[in-house]
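User: I'll paste a sequence; please echo it back and then give the predicted structure.

Assistant: Echoing your sequence first, then the prediction.
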Amino acid sequence: MVTFVNRLDVHGDLSEFLAVKSRAARFVRAQPGCVSHQTLRLVGPANVYVELSVWRDAAAHRAAVTSEGFRNLARDLAELATPETALYETVTDGTPAAAADATR
């Protein structure tokens, strides 16, 4: 499994951002391979959010984010927030999951 982390610094209208982010979250949850999705808001400033989505594998995540539907939503979000994104793998006992899987 992999986890996509998306930090969003909102610079546009917050209500509009939340509406677009809600549509994007529904889209992501409906994609094949999406295990879970949640949104966090930084305590304090109301303009920093983090989205966490867990995927079956990197290929499922890639298929979702390269789809036209997602690209349209991402474009709408980019007008309202600056994203900082990365894909992470799970680490168990100090060993990345991919490395642990290769030894089995």
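The mean pLDDT is 91. The chain has four helices and six strands.
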